């Protein structure tokens, strides 16, 4: 049959017919469960079992081969041993009308066995020639609640329709998410689900792009192990997160097995930190656990968006209220609301005398004597306050106060104000009727105070990215890398690196490269004492470790002594090192020291690091990262993420420094990294900061 025109992933999710190759009547086989689920959930299209050894499967006519089905087929699901998949793909390709194939079968590239990797490659070669998309192999495939389509075998599946799109690289995790979502007081709905398996063809980025443009999906949640193209991921996230929230659980956080690096930046900027920076920069919210991902998904699909960052906590129990406050205090996304005097008067009027109001600010403990009337009136007063953007309501009603009565009392209040309220009635049978009532009325409930608070933190973070103006990735998007090549082997010497800094107007002390003691003395006289001398050698990376740096040289006599001692120390500690000469530099005045560096990440390309420098670099590891390119505004955010930002404002004997100047330096380093693709690692450490100036005291560059 001829193809029916061009198509995208929509044709797979909205397939009008599905054939399953390997169909079985054995309920203990995955292929049986796929058809059983399609029938049970009410798939709107036609189902065609394929198996030469069966006449019927679950009451449906079974075909000996997919080519013998006369009707049009949009989607084919394969559940066969790996060795049998290639003949099946060839038969599907001969039809000429199939849009896509979901390969449930495992035993391909995930085994890392060359012969099985070749099988996967062959599947894609055949499919691309036939114009078909392939999901998998080694996956459970796709789900769509609009037409009740499912290609997998997830236990306890409830096809509750909602507005969430879910993408996963793990079938087990995806199944666990859907089971947990189904186990809520009101099952959490979703619109589409995709498990990409080995990503031989359709990747998590393909699904992200499609879900981002799908009007049926208002929020996206992802379980991610890796991305085939880090910069493409960022571009997509930046675009999508301006229109709908994106939550990501990225696993593989520990740096076990990471390669050794020669620079401070390389040691500090591990791949997981780079992913975190990428998500933050592009507008996705990173979460830590399955439960947090579920709660974020629940919050964003059941709550209105907050208008700002100010939160109030209303509780009838002190302990759970403090737990919520601790969770809020751990994150900079939210601030406690400052309640207006009128709001405080209302609370004093409606609550029992022993209630604690705004101790601390934004926190109200109603005490256990508060009944349903007090719950409703206090919540109404708080939500009516223009200084409150969201609220956590925590209650564990005692036996003399039915929880369902509290639920009914607060429902009308929450609907009236249209502000996000995370309700925590705790987990347990005694609270279930109340939670079911609330969620049946569109109000999200959570099992613990910290989960309720964290859900609002993540909702607020995502809302902050919605409708924001163009951010860092737009800065140089139209300007490709210049790719100026440094004519030197890796690593390059410091004088060469200093010349590179000069191209970007990055300041470095007055200096001269010298090849003998006489030239060094002349340079010091010309520059003016005190001076610093540094060994120049392509064979030496960490000069200080070998005695290759001497500071505070105040006279010619001190210079001659230091010069001779340096050459002797290097000859003793690095006898094979070739010493090209000595760099004589002006000694800089004391000041606050930071590090600025570049690392080339295999997934995202150049990454810029900022943090405290000098002796604090590895001890405190107080750093922030950004993927290049980025703007000065993004550089300012980067600086403010670190504890170093407190010192920059003036503290402990350090005067306040020009932060705008530092941000421009970071922006310049970002542009340098874009234009010099040959640089693998770059350290400016330390960069010394002053009230109205800054200067790079040491630079190290390593070529790829």
- Proportion of helical residues: 25-40%
Cα separation of the termini: 52 Å
The total tally of domains equals 5
CATH superfamily of the largest domain: Succinyl-CoA synthetase domains
Please tally the helical runs, counting DSSP H or I stretches of 4 or more residues: 23
Low-confidence stretches: 1-6, 257-269, 471-483
Describe it.
Strand 3 (56-57) and strand 4 (60-61) form a beta hairpin. Strands 9-8-11-10-12-13-14 form a 7-stranded mixed β-sheet, sandwiched between helices. Strands 15, 16, 17, 18, 19, 20 and 21 form a 7-stranded mixed β-sheet that branches. It folds into 5 domains: 1-139, Rossmann fold; 154-289, Succinyl-CoA synthetase domains (Rossmann fold, 3-Layer(aba) Sandwich); 306-465, Succinyl-CoA synthetase domains (Rossmann fold, 3-Layer(aba) Sandwich), CATH 3.40.50.261; 510-586, Dna Ligase, domain 1; 592-703, ATP-grasp fold, B domain (D-amino Acid Aminotransferase, Chain A, domain 1, 2-Layer Sandwich). The radius of gyration is 31 Å and the shape is flat. The protein contains 23 helices and 31 strands. The chain starts with 9 loop residues before the first helix and ends with a strand. It is α/β, with parallel strands linked by helices and 704 residues long.
Précis, in short:
It is built from 23 helices and 31 strands. With 704 residues, the protein is α/β, with parallel strands linked by helices.
Keywords:
flat, 5 domains, 704 residues, alpha/beta, 7-stranded mixed beta sheet, 31 strands, Rossmann fold
């Amino acid at each position: 049959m001829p193809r029916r025109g061009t198509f995208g992933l929509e044709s797979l999710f909205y397939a009008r017919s599905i054939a399953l190759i390997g169909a079985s009547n054995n309920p203990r086989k995955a292929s049986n469960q796929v058809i059983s689920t399609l029938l049970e959930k009410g798939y709107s299209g036609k189902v065609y079992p394929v198996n030469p050894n069966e006449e019927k499967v679950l009451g449906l006519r079974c075909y000996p081969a997919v080519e013998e089905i006369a009707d049009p087929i949009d989607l084919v699901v394969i559940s066969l041993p790996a060795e049998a998949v290639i003949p099946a793909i060839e038969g599907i390709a001969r039809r000429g009308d199939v849009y896509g194939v979901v390969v449930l079968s495992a035993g391909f590239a995930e085994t890392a066995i060359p012969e099985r990797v070749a099988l996967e490659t062959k599947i894609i070669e055949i499919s691309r020639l036939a114009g078909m998309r392939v999901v998998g192999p080694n996956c459970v495939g796709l789900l769509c609640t609009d037409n009740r389509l499912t290609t997998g075998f997830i236990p306890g599946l409830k096809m509750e329709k909602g507005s969430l799109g879910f993408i996963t690289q793990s079938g087990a995790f995806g199944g666990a998410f859907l089971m947990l979502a189904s186990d809520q007081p009101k099952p959490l709905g979703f619109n589409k689900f995709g498990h990409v398996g080995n990503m031989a063809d359709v990747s998590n980025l393909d699904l992200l792009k499609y879900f981002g443009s799908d009007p049926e999906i208002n929020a996206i949640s992802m379980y991610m192990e890796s991305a085939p193209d880090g910069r493409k991921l960022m571009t997509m996230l930046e675009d999508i997160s301006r229109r709908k929230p994106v939550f990501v659980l990225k696993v593989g956080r520990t740096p076990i097995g990471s390669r050794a690096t020669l620079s401070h930046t390389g040691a500090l900027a591990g791949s997981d930190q780079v992913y975190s920076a990428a998500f933050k920069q592009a507008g996705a919210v990173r979460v830590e656990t399955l439960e947090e991902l579920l709660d974020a998904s629940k919050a964003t699909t059941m709550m209105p968006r907050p208008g700002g960052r100010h939160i109030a906590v209303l509780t009838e129990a002190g302990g759970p209220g403090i737990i919520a406050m601790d969770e809020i205090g751990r994150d900079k996304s939210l601030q406690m609301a400052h309640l207006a005097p009128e709001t405080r008067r209302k609370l004093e009027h409606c609550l029992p005398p022993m209630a604690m109001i705004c101790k601390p600010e934004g926190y109200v403990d109603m005490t256990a004597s508060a009944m349903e009337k007090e719950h409703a009136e206090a919540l109404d007063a708080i939500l009516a306050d223009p200084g409150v953007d969201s609220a956590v309501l925590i209650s564990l009603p005692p036996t003399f106060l039915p929880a369902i009565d509290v639920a009914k009392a607060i429902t009308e209040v929450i609907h009236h104000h249209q502000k996000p309220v995370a309700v925590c009635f705790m987990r347990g049978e005694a609270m279930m009727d109340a939670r079911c009532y609330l969620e049946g009325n569109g109000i999200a409930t959570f099992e613990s105070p910290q989960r309720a608070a964290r859900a609002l933190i993540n909702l607020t973070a995502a809302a902050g990215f919605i409708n924001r103006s163009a951010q860092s990735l737009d800065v140089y998007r139209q300007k490709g890398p210049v790719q100026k090549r440094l004519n030197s082997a890796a690593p390059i010497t410091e004088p060469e690196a200093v010349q590179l800094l000069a191209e970007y107007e990055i300041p470095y002390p007055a200096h001269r490269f010298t090849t003998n003691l006489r030239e060094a003395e002349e340079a010091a006289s010309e520059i003016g004492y005190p001076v610093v001398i540094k060994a120049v050698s392509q064979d030496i990376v960490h000069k200080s470790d070998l005695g290759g740096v001497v500071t505070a040289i105040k006279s010619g006599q001190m210079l001659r002594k230091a010069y001779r001692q340096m050459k002797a120390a290097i000859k003793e500690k690095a006898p094979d090192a070739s010493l090209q000469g000595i760099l004589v530099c002006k000694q800089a005045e004391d000041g606050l020291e930071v590090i600025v560096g570049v690392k080339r990440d295999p997934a995202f390309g150049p990454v810029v690091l900022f943090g405290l420098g000098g002796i604090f670099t590895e001890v405190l590891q107080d750093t922030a990262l950004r993927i290049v390119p980025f703007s000065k505004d993004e550089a300012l955010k980067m600086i403010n993420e670190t504890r170093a930002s407190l010192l920059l404002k003036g503290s402990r004997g350090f005067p306040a420094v020009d932060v705008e100047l530092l941000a421009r330096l970071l922006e310049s380093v970002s542009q340098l990294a874009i234009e010099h693709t040959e640089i693998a690692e770059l350290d400016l450490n330390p960069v010394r900061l002053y009230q109205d100036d800054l200067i790079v005291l040491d630079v190290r560059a390593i070529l790829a």
